[in-house]
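## retry 2 of 3
previous attempt timed out at serialization; input unchanged, resubmitting
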Amino acid sequence: MYKQKTKETDSNVIEFIENVDNPKKREDAYELLDVFSKTTGYEAKMWGPSIIGFGTYHYKYESGHEGDAPLVGFSPRKAKISLYFSPEDKKREELLQIFGKHTSGKACVYINKVADIDKDVLKQLINESVKFLRDMYPNNEL
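## retry succeeded, writing output
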């Protein structure tokens, strides 16, 4: 049976950010912490060793695979900052067109620094992802 790797932990978010090597990336992490916290209204929690997540939902796929995940989040990684929004949200691609300098994969949006993006569009991406996941998985927020 599949074991979920990334789970909410009791690790301290501020301690994690303080241990980010690059001072500019650390500064950006604090800025993102502020934007995500204020936009979602959720307290930041560590997910696994390096993801800062906001809110929680329980998902279950037709395959039977299920688990818990943050509604949105970010991770100040060495190469780039990873932003986590629902990849299934149809408005995501539309908003990314006006987001600023980024690349994206299936589940993540990658930025070099906060100064490269439009923070108002970031807030829209956060709100859209939270709304989408709440609508997709109603009444199961933890």
